[in-house]
Design a protein that fits this description.
With about 200 residues, this protein is mostly helical. It is about 75% helix and about 0% strand. Helix 2 runs antiparallel to helix 3. It is globular and about 70 Å long. The relative contact order is 0.17.
Amino acid sequence: MFAVSPLLIAQAPFESTMGLVQKISYYHMPAAWMFLVAAIVCGVASIRFLFTGSIRHDRVAWGAAELVVLFGALALVTGPLWARKAWGVWWVWDVRLTSSLMGWMVAVAYLLVRKYGGPGSDKLAAGLSLFGMANVPFIYISVNYWRTIHPKTTVIPKLPLEMGVPFWFCTATFLLLFVLLLRMRVRLEEQRARLDALYLALD
């Protein structure tokens, strides 16, 4: 799908005011959406871990936090590349950009707590992830209520068919990548736990 997407993007028409640079959006917006989806998955899995103590939910939250950092980095890099050519600035401290950066930093903090926090860091990080999840709807709707260089959320449903097809294809591609990476990350932690158990059994 990632091999096909550039062909679909190349065939899409240029946006009337931004021209060629607008085509960054076909990767920028799906990456940003997966950034938000990953934050929600991390938060929900953390809540379930806090209430049930299930290690599997903790592993899902941990894997999702890593994907928040990954897709958030993609969104935060492609956004300024697009903005510089389209609007003449790399970065402005508007609500969406600032809250997105904060959400990404919360995920980085989650990973740092898990790695260096010591005993109890799993529950502390789970609590931290709730702030990241609570930030998601704020990021999404902020463009509808505050003055920003970003277009409103109503733009996407109004895309013409020639732009809508590559956009939704790229969104599906990023979604499948998110699911695949999350499943692989959880499985890796399961295999690591089994290996640790085998080492302990040898002792």
